[in-house]
Backbone:
């Protein structure tokens, strides 16, 4: 079993144990607030080199990780983890990030 398949299996196992509805989001590649690649292009370019999925389930209770450094001023950077607490009116996940 590949690492990607194993990771997806474990993610699905944890997500199905949560008592909340799925919230599916399509992954889009952005660069400096500009959509740089369409899903088909992004999937083709990155899928063979990473284990990043084309979509993610951000249901309430799901663990998430920030993958960029655009919020350094808020002490949120690549690798910061949090838990989805809900969904905004714009259908974006609301994430709680523990602080020290």
Residues:
């Amino acid at each position: 079993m590949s690492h990607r398949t194993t990771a997806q299996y474990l993610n699905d196992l944890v997500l199905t144990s949560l008592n909340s509805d799925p919230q599916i989001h399509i992954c889009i590649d952005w660069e400096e607030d500009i959509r740089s690649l369409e899903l088909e292009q992004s999937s083709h370019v990155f899928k063979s080199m990473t284990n990043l999925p084309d979509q993610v389930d951000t249901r309430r209770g799901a663990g998430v990780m920030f993958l960029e450094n655009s919020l350094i001023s808020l002490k949120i950077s690549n690798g910061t983890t949090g838990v989805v607490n809900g969904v905004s009116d714009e259908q974006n996940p609301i994430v709680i990030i523990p602080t020290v």
Q: What stands out?
A: The radius of gyration is 14 Å. The longest helix spans residues 3-17. The chain has one domain: 3-96. The mean pLDDT is 81.
